[in-house]
What we know:
The complex is a heterodimer of chains A (about 110) and B (about 110). In chain A, β7 and β8 form a beta hairpin. With about 110 residues, chain A is an all-beta fold. The mean pLDDT of chain A is about 95. In chain B, β8 and β9 form a beta hairpin. Chain B has no helices and twelve strands. The mean pLDDT of chain B is about 90. Classes of the chains: A mainly beta (about 110), B mainly beta (about 110). At the A-B interface, β4, β5, β9 and β10 of A face β6, β10 and β11 of B.
Amino acid sequence: KAGVTQTPRYLIKTRGQQVTLSCSPISGHRSVSWYQQTPGQGLQFLFEYFSETQRNKGNFPGRFSGRQFSNSRSEMNVSTLELGDSALYLCASSLAPGDNEQFFGPGTRLTVL
Amino acid sequence: AQSVAQPEDQVNVAEGNPLTVKCTYSVSGNPYLFWYVQYPNRGLQFLLKYITGDNLVKGSYGFEAEFNKSQTSFHLKKPSALVSDSALYFCAVLPLGNNRLAFGKGNQVVVIP
């Protein structure tokens, strides 16, 4: 069974641009969560989607948004990029909310110049 | 709100010696507890989890962790460390009913040959 896939793996943008990251969960998994990893703040929860609905949102500004499609694939978008948005963005999938095991993808490394 | 503390920044251990990575948590109710490992330029890999039952949990690659409710700790252990165990280790808690993992800041483990 294929694992969680994230595209692209690496991305370089400049301040003020916007970016879209994609995550394909494990087949049969319907819940997708996103996390931001930075050296200073560590791993922080961004949001969680299930059945195309956002169930939870972390403490991030409105520039960070996401969505989930009917096939459970998810995208996250960051608008008006700032230098501090440079991070590794990790996607995790699970069967459903409250399922006690999340499987992580390899991440997308975003660099904002 | 839940929180996870991993008090040490880096853990150095000689190959063949026992390895311990410490974790304490603060959360209401009975959470699920996890350990993940991250190798350079990779996502998070699941090591083990505590849900309920025996306080000693065995996981992947010879790792185990001991849940101590009175001390709210969940320390990761390995009887004999390998050089290949050198990586970043994260402790995490998951409150019941949602997928919002809260992570500790991570511990860099360095196993010295």
